[in-house]
Records
---
Amino acid sequence: MSATRLTSLRAKRSNPSKGRAAEWMATSLALLAMTVGLAACQATQPAAKIDAAFDEKEAAYIHKQGETRIDGHAFVKTPNGTAKHAVGEPVRLIPATAYARERFEKLYGGKKFIPPGDYRQAESTDPAYVAAQRTTKADSNGRFSFDKVGPGTYYLSTQVVWKPEGAYQPQGGAVWELVTVTGKEDKPIKAIVNGL
């Protein structure tokens, strides 16, 4: 039997209220240790250095008006098969420039989905990269649209995050998908952004 447990039992026998206080203290310390341990597990990844320079000319097609519409649906499936949607989340349309390709590769580690604990930041972000994006908001079903999109290849990125009742940490994560607009589409492009 551990020394902590023996001390707790002796305290209960000699003075019941002191025993409860000691038990409460031991439980509180155990919960604190678990919280610190979980926080260490959720530590963020080191910042990524993006070597490519952002080229505004390469991204200029984001500003050209086209005739194509992208209709998308952003969601992830839980292990039990329930769909969780990107409710009210910003969705970004990002030109797939050399800079963007390197960012997505380094920040997502070659995957199309990363959970919150694996989020990685870039050491720095060129403000022109942010200016060369279009943003919309997903509706209550995770659906979104971009109208009048010009020809080019784009990243669609968002996050699908929720916090289950009674849970300490959020679940879900960031997701992206690649879409190409040719300018010859006669109907909207349907995009599924689910990390697969």
Note: Residues 1-16, 24-43 have pLDDT under 50 and may be disordered.
---
Amino acid sequence: MVTKRLPARRRPKQTKIPPGPKREDYDNIWDWIVAMGESIPKEVQDTIPHDGSINLEHYLYGAPKRSR
């Protein structure tokens, strides 16, 4: 059996994320979830893959990307 070593992934530059809003400050859990999403800095949001669910194996293990 021949195995092929996958190329090493380049890790993105780590950005320090400030702590998000506290759950006890919100009466409704959905308002808290929205506030958590809005607290993520723009430069971090830009690094999140938009096709993460379909290409999970690619991002975790380096498998070939799938098309939609």
Note: The two ends are 31 Å apart (CA to CA).
